[in-house]
Design a protein that fits this description.
CATH topology: OB fold (Dihydrolipoamide Acetyltransferase, E2P)
CATH architecture: Beta Barrel
Structural class: mainly beta
Order of helices and strands: EEEHEEEEEEH
Strand content: 35-45%
Number of domains: 1
Number of strands: 9
Number of helices: 2
Helix content: under 10%
Shape: globular
Length: 155
Amino acid sequence: MVKDNITIEGARIGFRNFAGKESQFNPNGNKHFSIFLDHKLGETLENDGWNIKWLEPREEGDPPTAHMQVGVSFANIPPKVIVVTSGGKTRLNDETIPTLDWAEISNVDIIIRPYNWAVGKKTGVKAYVKTMYVTVVEDEFESKYNNIGEALPFE
């Protein structure tokens, strides 16, 4: 049984589905993404019972790349997900988190909590976001106008 959280600074994420869009391999509403791990950490977490997948190497002679799907659920234990920009910090919720699907991200610091599950004789560990700070790349206009209020005069 896994009890300890995983803390990763400068994480690299991919396969984003923060909107929880339905696909061949994803039921509607299942929000998640993958976090890429260095080889040694991937092996350690796999040995501890986490569900680690391995991507084939891009270059011959390179090791496979470890990654783990991380769930984002606001149902039982809502995560703390913060977007960081030059204008400050914004906490995301179940309705606003899909914006991360298309955001240009420069940094992710994350704490992942384990959920130990058992179905019959099968057991495993599912990863969920506990806390995540996402730094978003801004274009020159966003940083230029970030101190101006959101209300537009013609609204």
